[in-house]
Amino acid sequence: MSGNNIFYAQSGGVTAVINASACGVIETARSYPELGKVYAGRNGIIGALREELIDTSLESVDAIAALRHTPSGAFGSCRYKLKGIEENRAEYERLIEVFRAHAIGYFFYNGGGDSQDTANKVSQFSKSMDYPITCIGIPKTVDNDLPITDNCPGFGSVAKYVAVSIREAGLDVASMCESSTKVFVLEVMGRHAGWIAGAAGLAAEQEGDAPHVIVFPEIPFDKSAFLAKVKSSVDKYGYCAIVVSEGAHYEDGTFLADQGTRDAFGHAQLGGVAPTLANMVKDELGYKYHWAVSDYLQRAARHIASGTDVEQAYAMGKAAVEFAVAGKNAVMPTIVRESSAPYKWRIGEANLGDVANVEKKMPRDFITEDGFGITASAREYFAPLILGEDYPPYHNGLPDYARLQKTLAAKKLPAWQEK
Amino acid sequence: MSGNNIFYAQSGGVTAVINASACGVIETARSYPELGKVYAGRNGIIGALREELIDTSLESVDAIAALRHTPSGAFGSCRYKLKGIEENRAEYERLIEVFRAHAIGYFFYNGGGDSQDTANKVSQFSKSMDYPITCIGIPKTVDNDLPITDNCPGFGSVAKYVAVSIREAGLDVASMCESSTKVFVLEVMGRHAGWIAGAAGLAAEQEGDAPHVIVFPEIPFDKSAFLAKVKSSVDKYGYCAIVVSEGAHYEDGTFLADQGTRDAFGHAQLGGVAPTLANMVKDELGYKYHWAVSDYLQRAARHIASGTDVEQAYAMGKAAVEFAVAGKNAVMPTIVRESSAPYKWRIGEANLGDVANVEKKMPRDFITEDGFGITASAREYFAPLILGEDYPPYHNGLPDYARLQKTLAAKKLPAWQEK
Lengths: 419, 419
Known about the structure:
The structure is a homodimer.
Chain A: E1 5-10, H1 18-30, E2 38-41, H2 45-49, E3 53-55, H3 61-66, H4 89-101, E4 104-111, H5 113-128, E5 134-139, H6 155-176, E6 183-188, H7 195-200, E7 213-215, H8 223-237, E8 240-245, E9 258-262, E10 268-270, H9 273-285, E11 289-293, H10 296-300, H11 307-325, E12 331-340, E13 343-351, H12 352-355, H13 376-382, E14 394-395, E15 398-399
C-alpha cells in the first residue's frame, strides 16, 4: 500500500456536472475511515506536476455539498496531455514523486478518452517505480464519445440545454416568420460525433416542431440537399429551425467552419458554422435569418441540468471511491442501461485500456435516411438522459454556486521545471 | 359604444413573457360579463388587416393558463409598422372596417414604442371614422427602452438569462484558463441601449467574478482602452469574461458588426460583434478565445424567466383590460417602482402619446467611469428585476409549452389587397 491519500483531477473541457462527480468522490471518501485526504489538482494534472494540491479536507461540508449543483471545474481543469512514457519519462517520474511525497495511493482522473489513457499509463508506470498507484477513471465528456459506458456524465445536461434552447428559439421564429426571420441556425458542440446535435432533435415531438433540420458530422455536408430541405420546411411550416454540429464537414473532410487554430492536442478549434450556414441560406434562398452559437453556455448550463445526468455524475464519483476501496485498479465505472422506458440503469465497470482513445460515433441508424433528422432508435436512446430537472439554489435571482477556499497543501519538493 | 369584443395583437420581437400578458388579457376579459370575445391577431396587426382573427374563446381554460409559462408570441407577431395616416389612410380604414365587422370596440396592442404610436393613431383615427375604438397599449420589449414605465415586461427575463449565462460561462473559463481559453465573449441584444448588457453585470458579485468587461452602446468603443482592460483582467484573474452589446459602435457611429442588412423599420440588422471582438483580442493580445452569440435564445428563454417579470407581464395584461372597462383610452399601464429593497412596485398609467417613439437610454451614472462596468445605482435598479424563478412545467424532460388551436373567426369582408 503506497499511502491512503487520494489525488483527484479534472481534465479537459468541463461540464455542468463534473463537480457533481467531484462531490461524489469527496463525500464518499470522507465516509471511509481507511481513506486519507482528498487532494484535488489545481488546474488538473498540472497541479500534480507543480505540486499544487488543493486540500479538500479544509472545505466545509456545505461547500463540498454545493459542488453537486455547481458547473465547470471547481478545482480547475486543463488541456494538457501527458506524452507517451518513452517520450517524456520525466513527467511520469514527477507525478510519482509528488504522489509519494504526499502519501497518495489513489489517482482518480475525471475526464475523457485521453485522460483514461493517461490514468492507465500512470497505473502501469507506478508499479515500475515501486510505488503502485490505484488509478480509477471517472467518465466525463459532453461529447458522449466514450466507448463501453452507455452515456457519459455531462452529456445529458448539454443535451437538455440544446433541446430546450431549440424548442424555445423555434417558437420565437414561428411567431415572427410571417414578416421577419424565417430561418434560425443554432450551432452546438460535437467535433466528430453528432450526439449533441442529435439530442436537440428530441424537441421535435409533433409534426412541424423545431428543429426541422439537423446537420451532423457523421453525414458529409451536401449543400443542395440541405438547401432543398430548408426550403421545404419554410414552404410547409413557414420557417425552418436548424441545429448544426460544429464538426459538420464536406465530403473531403473540410469543416464548414475551420478557424485554422489548433489546441494542445492538435485538434482543430472550430466555431462559426452557424453564420456560415445562415449566409448560405440567405445567398441561395433569400430568407431572412438569425443564428446563435451557444459555445460554453451549453456545457456550463447547470441551471437547466438534467436530473438524470446529475445523479449519474455523482454516482460515478462515488463508485470510483468504492472501486478503489474494493481493491480494483485501472478501471472506470460505467453506466449500463437496463431499459429505456421506464429508464433503468446500473453501474458497470470497464478496463481503462479498453476505454482509452476510442471515439464512439453515433450509430448510422440514429440518423434518418435523408441525413437531417433522428430516428425512433435515437429518441429511445436520448430520451431518458434529459429526464428530470435538478435546479440549483438561487440567491439574489442568480444561481448560488460553490465558492471554495482552495487552500494548497504545503509543498515538499523542489519546483517542477516546465518545458 | 362600438362593440364589446376585443382585438389583441402582439407586435415586434417577441419575449419570454409576452404570452403572460396575453394570458392576463384573456383571463381577465373572461371574468367581465360585459366584455365579449377576445380575438387575437394572427401574426399581429397583419391579422387585423387580413381579417385573420384567432377566436380565443375556443381555447380551453388550461390552454390559456399555459400561455403564462410559454415564450414567444403564441398568436404570431410581426415586424410591420403602419405608416402615418396621411401616407396610408387605406390601412387605417381597413382596420376600422374589420373592427366594425366583428363588433370590436377594444384594441390592446402589446409591443414597444412603434406599437404604442400605432395604437395612439388608431384611437384618434377611429373617432374620425365614427367608430371609436378604445386603444390600450401593453408594454413589451426586451430592450427596456420604453419611457415612463420603470421597466418593460420581457426585460427582466432576458436580464436574468444573460446574468446566469455569463456567470456559468465565466466559471467555465475560470476553470480552463491556466492552459486553454483565457478570453470569452458573450454577445447580447441591445441595439441602441445597453440595458441587457448592463444587467449581465449583476453576475459579478465579488471581486474577480465574471463579467470583467462590458461593452455598452452608450460608450463609443475605444479599442486601446478595451484591450488594456482585457489584459489587466487576464493578468489579475487569469481570464477575462466579456459581455458586449450588439449595438457597440465606434465614435463615428459605425457598429462593430454591421451586417449591412436592414429590417422593415429601416433598423440595421446586427450580429457578429462577439467574433469581431474575440479576433481583436487574439490579434492584439494573443489570448486563446471562445465566443457565444445567444441571439433569440436570450429572449425566448422562458425556462429561466424572472419571476418578477412573469408577474409584471401578467399584471400589465390584466391592467389593460381593467383600464378599458374603467373607460380609459389611449393609455398604457406602467410599472411604478416604489422601493428597490425590498422591491415594491405598483401599476401606473401613461398616455400613449407620451410613450410613442421615445427611446429611453441607460443613465450615464449606471456605467462606471471607465465605461466597462456597472455602478451601484445600476445594481440597485437591475437587482429586483431578475428576482424569483418561475419554472414552466416539464414533460419528457422538456418544457411543456402551450399548443393552441388558433381557430380563425369566419371572414365577413373581401380580402385585403396587400401592396
